[in-house]
Structure formats: C-alpha cells, structure tokens
Amino acid sequence: MKERFMKFFDNSIGKIGISAVFFIVLFIFPIILRGSGYGNESYVEGVLILCMMWAAMTLSWNLLMGYMGIWSLAQQVFFGIAAYTSAMLNYYFHMSPWLGFIVGPIAAAVVGLIIAIPVLRLKAAPYIIIATMCLAEIIRLVFTNLVDLTRGELGFWMMDSFHDIGSINFNGVDKIPYYYLMFIIFAVIALVCGILAKSSTGLAMKAIRDSQEAAESLGVDLTKTKIKVFVLSAYMAGFCGVFYAHYMKILTPTNVFGQSMMTEFIAMNVLGGLATVRGPIFGAFFITIIMESLQGIDDYKLLIYAIILIITTLIMPNGILNSKAQFLSWNKKIKKLLHKNADKQPTQMVKGDA
Amino acid sequence: MTIFLQNLINGTISGSYYAVLGVGLTVTWGVLKMINVAHGDFYMLGAYFFYTLSKMLGMPVLISLLIAVAGVFLCGMVIERVVLAPSLGRGKFGDTPFILTLAIGIMLENIAQLVWGETNVGVPYFSDAIYEIGGITMAAQRLIVAAVAIVTLIVVMYVIKKTKFGWAISATAQDIFAANLMGICTKRIYMITFGIAVALCAVAGCLLAPIYGINPWMGGSIQLKSFVVCIVGGLGSIGGSIIAGILLGIIESFSTQFLGSGWQNVIAYALVIVMFWVKPTGLFGKKE
Fold first, then answer.
1. Which of A55, A275, B87, B213 is the 20 to 30 A CA-CA neighbour of A239?
2. Which terms in the Gene Ontology molecular function aspect does this entry carry (chain A) (predicted)?
C-alpha cells in the first residue's frame, strides 16, 4: 500500500493530477468558504491572495536562481518598478489601471535588461550577489530621494483601484474579483514556468547552472539565454507588481524595493526546493500561512523566519519537497533506533553487519 | 580651500572605518571562501554591547570597548562553529553559507529589536574637546576614532603577515588541502578567522556609535559599503581594502558636500557598478 502510494507521487500522471487538483481546489475555494458559513471569509481570501502573489513572485525568481543559478538579488526591483510605473501613470496621466498590466511589466522588463547587462559579465556567484544588491539599493534610494514625484518614504497612495468591468466591482469591499484576478495571473505564470522548464530553453538554463563553460562548448548561447530569462523573469514579476499597486494602494520604497522582500523570496524558494515548479508554490503558501497564523507573536516573526531558513539549509539543502531520500533514510534510522531499544538481539546483528 | 581640506580630513577619518570593515569582509572571503551578508549586523551587535556596558552598567570606556569586542569575537566563533561550519565546502562556491549568513543577519537584527527595543539610543562622546588649526575644526572624538582604526589595522596586518598564526591563515586561504597536510587545523583557523573578522566590525561599531547613534537597522548601509570597499579594493586583498576604504570615505564626503545628503550612498553603490564595468577584479585584485 505504502509502495503504491509513493509510486503515485513519482508518476508523471500523478504529478499532473496533484497540480490539477491543487488549482481546482484553489479555484472553487471561495465558493466552499461561503457555503460553509465561516464568518471571516474576506480575511481568508486576503491571505490566499497574498499566498498566490508571493508564489508567483518566487516562481519568477526561481527561473533565474533555481534553473539558471544566477544569484540575482534584485527581483523585488522588477516588482516595485512595475508597481510605481502603473500607479504614477494612473495618478499623473489618468491612465486606466488595466493598461498598467501592459505598461508595468514592459517597464520591469526594460529594467531587467538594464540589470542583466552588467551581471552578464560576471561569472562567480558572489560578484553577482554584490552587484545586484547594490543596483537594488541604488534604485530604492533614487525613489526615496525623488520626493516631489514619489512622495518618498511617506508612501504613494493616490492611485485608483482597478476600474469596474460591467457589474464586477473592484472597490475592495468584496475580495472575490481580486482573488480571481490574482488566480489568473498566478496560474498563467505557473503554467509558463512549467512549460519553460521542459522546453529546450529550460534545458539550456540547467546546463548554464551546472557549468557555464561546458554549456558554452555544447553550443548554448550564454548571452542570449541569460538575457531572455532575465527579461522574462522581470516581465512576470511586473504583473504581480501592478496587481499589488492597485490592490494594496500604498507603495513605499522600503516596502517594495527593500531587501526584506527579497529575503522572503529566498526563504520560500529554499524551503520548497529550488529548480522545481511545485517548490516555490509550496514554500510561498507554507510560509505565508504560518506567518499569518503567528500574528499574535509578531515580535518573534523574523526570528522564526531565520530559524526556518537555517534549519532547512542545514538539514534539507534541496528543500522539503526534494528531500524524499532524506526522509526515507531518517525513517530507517528512527526504526533502527526503536528496534535497538526494544530488543538487544537485532542490535548485535546490525553491529555484525557493519 | 579650507572646505576642501575639511572634507578631505573628514573623508579620511570615516574612510578608515570603511577600511576596517572592508578588511574583515575580505578576510572572510579569502579564507572561508564565502561572502558574509551578516557583516553589518555584527557591527550593530558590537555597538549594542558597548552601549550596554558603558552606558547601562557605567563601566569605563576602554574596558567596555575591550569586553564588547571580545564578546562579539566569541559570538562570531560560536556562530561559525554551530551554523556555518557544517555547510562550508558544500555545493557551489558561496551558495549555502550565503543563505545561512542571510538568516543570521535577520536573527541578530530581530534579537537586537527584542532586547534593546526599536528606538535610537546614543552613547556620549569619549571627549568633548574641539581643536581648530588654520580654519579646520577637528573634534577630539574623530581623532580618537581615527587613531584606534589605524592601530587596529596595523595590528591585523602584523598578525597576518608576521606571526605563525597569520601564516597558517594565509596557508589555509591558498590551499586548504595542503594546509591540512602540513598539520594546520583548518577548522580552527576557519573559526578564529570568522571571529577576527566580526571583531573588526565590533571595533568599528563601538567607535562610531557616539557619532552616528545606535539602532537595530544600522548595519544595512554599512553592509553594502563594506561590499563596495571589497570590490573596489579587489576581493581578498587586504592592502587594497584599506586604500579603497579611505577612497570611499573621501568620495562620500565630497559628494555629500556637492550633491546633498540623500545622494552620497547612491554614488558609493554606483562605484561598484562602475568597477564591474571597468575592472571586475578590483584595483589591486589578482586575476582569477
């Protein structure tokens, strides 16, 4: 029974089945929630919107870090640039927030291109980390200092919500429209990541991660692949940024460009497992829900974050979902230990075997 | 002219601290082969230890300085042994230890918030005297600070270049396998090197605390500036870090003068990008 159960998870049909069930459950969740008569549905939906948003962001970063091994710590910049672009165009030029979904991601992609160019020259991971951290900080400081345009640290809040489409009302009282909007963005990003990972570009990305020299000698165009993935990753992050701008309706440079958001993505991705599609989704949902349920002990939140990160990195460097072999070996060890305590005889046998 | 000289001197003094911080980071890099993103948080920890000892317990400045630095040195060694040591040398260069230092940074910041509160605290100046020579004003505090920085740098250089222990560190940095064969306990070297690197942060934290104040987030910008120093000086080069640190201090002092106070950090970080374009190995770095 157990063997069959395990096999089901390894099977590709099983995997597709699980992801299909996951998305269907997510799709009908608000309906179940309302049907069950639970009083606080708008709060639960809000948490799930956040889960999906961080999952989509982490997926976009996973393309760079997980699949291609480029330690870019500037993912939050793409998010922030798209958010500010859409919000400021909306306020200063009265552009519809829906058009933001076209303009914002393009702005993010352009910034991605600008960041990709200096990073392309660097091969060692630490250089890339330092370069992207400094670029992110420069952009944060520029947005903080241009007080006349962005209101600096006071926060930019004068943008509209998404305009209503027919009878669908985006005023924020009912979270259902936002929920399904985010669901569509999240599902499309997850689908694109899944397809990309299987495509030839995905293989090229993995080859670059394992060895740049070997990949180049086998005819992978390093520059082209890197730029393509950087731009695509920024473009995806841009969608989340535009959604965030008109959903939260307040943007501060520290919030959207700060290093703390990047740390969240790293934690989610490392926890769930790099270079998979399910890893970031699991990590984002797990951490967001845990953090949301720990609201009472808000002061210790970051400490718990750090401890999760340390423990995962030390004992499960591949993430929870990729550590099946590790779990099995622990299982064996625990069984051995229990066996030892229960009976002396087998202990000697084990020793004899060794 | 006076303004020029004043800026030059102020820049050199704050630059001497960037040099101290940069040397710490570059030593970690050279020996442990990882980058430490919690560097700035050890700086913050040193400042808080100093504040606790000198202001809350009322100890003399010199003694509290020594105890604070020793405390951070011990913390660094314990953290290296418990958290970093199991992951060093695993996987690709700098990947896993990097995530761990990120987590250590968050942890230290959060512990500081819980223990000392989320407010700015201050330490009184060591000396209130102000000297004036030819129109250039000099606070005695800044002179003391510069003197301590120079002494610290000389001591570190001496230990690494002239003592047996320093040779062991260099040997470990060059080739860990050969160092092991020669009977050097590289694990111990790793632990002590990390301790020394974070103790250097603590020295900087203690001495700059009276000038800049103390809060749990003070490590953030210092962190990036030590990166700037490391890259401009060439990663792994101690002499390069010292020169780059002083250079950064001077550039910052002049850009505050001419561009206003919001923009000096932008210039400092832009320096890294320029360096990557022009010469990625840094001013004094060796070719890889």
1. A275
2. branched-chain amino acid transmembrane transporter activity
